[in-house]
Design a protein that fits this description.
heterodimer, A: alpha+beta, 3-stranded antiparallel sheet, 6 helices, globular, B: mainly beta, Elongation Factor Tu (Ef-tu), domain 3, 6-stranded antiparallel β-barrel
């Protein structure tokens, strides 16, 4: 049922970044009920799709973090049947993860950057079924494309 | 209350383990599902922006006994989080991946 290896392999494997599609903490209207774990992905497409669902509730964003900032907080495991999410689960609540992120990208900017790199995604996912279908049918990015994605997002954030 | 099913396992002592993702409302032990639904597939990518259409809906009964996230028993499965529901008093032996557990049956397309 669980994959005890995948999150570890993804965390220790190639790639410098972790991504999370969510609402900013300030946009949540209800108390945090979670288990103190923040799921992230090594692929910005996965994070952007989650943000495309979250935008139904508010100003969704993609958070960009450096793996090296979370070396001591690796948690897990992930469920085998969700292996396509390329998830790395961190042992800290989402609002703490947000504070330690390097960049916060508006969902439309993330979609635009992915579009520039040749990935066309649905811009909004109205329900969980649409999210599941998008996650299983979308492609995953190559490592050098992920670096380019972060570079382009950084340029956008700096107004260039 | 909805739960998007990825798969299920019927284990010892009649406990049905259902793996999947919570919908927009959190799920707690004691919650009861009364229906199982399937959606009409939507075209990737643009069709996924459209509202869902329910193709089939069947009445069932399943009661959640325990909730598990990241391998740990928890008091609540937060909205949109993946997890395992350990269920009892089930009117079905297994539930199929791709279907949705719901607290009530909804109107289907013709």
């Amino acid at each position: 049922m669980y994959d005890d290896r995948q999150h570890l392999d993804l965390f220790l494997g190639p790639g410098r970044y972790l991504f999370r599609g969510t609402l900013p903490s300030s946009a949540f209207t209800t108390e945090y009920l979670g288990s103190g774990v923040t799921p992230t992905s090594i692929d910005p497409i996965v994070a952007t799709l989650f943000a495309c669902q979250k935008r139904m509730e508010g100003p969704a964003v993609v958070l960009v973090a450096l793996k090296s900032d979370f070396s001591d907080l690796l948690n897990g495991p992930s469920l085998k049947s969700f292996g396509y999410e390329l998830a790395v689960n961190l042992e800290l609540p989402p609002f703490e993860f947000e504070k330690r992120c390097r960049h916060c990208i508006a969902v439309n900017d993330s979609l635009a950057v992915l579009g520039e790199l040749g990935y066309r995604l649905p811009s909004v996912l109205p329900d969980g079924g649409a999210l599941t279908q998008a996650l299983t049918q979308s492609p995953r990015m190559l490592m050098d494309e992920i670096d380019r994605y972060v570079e382009l997002c950084q340029q956008l954030a700096e107004g260039g | 209350m909805e739960f998007y099913i990825s798969g299920s396992v019927n284990g010892e002592a009649g406990v049905l383990s259902i793996i999947g993702r919570c919908g927009n409302e959190p799920i707690r032990p004691g919650a009861e599902f009364r229906a199982i639904l399937s959606e009409k597939p939507r075209q990737y990518p643009d069709g996924l922006e459209l509202p869902r259409e329910i193709e089939r809906c069947k009445n069932i009964h399943i009661r959640v006994q325990e909730v598990e996230v990241y391998g740990k028993k928890v008091d609540v499965l937060p909205a949109n989080t993946t997890g395992v529901l350990r269920c009892v008093d089930s009117s079905v032996e297994l539930v199929p991946g791709g279907w949705i557990l719901s607290d009530q049956c909804v109107a289907t397309i013709a």
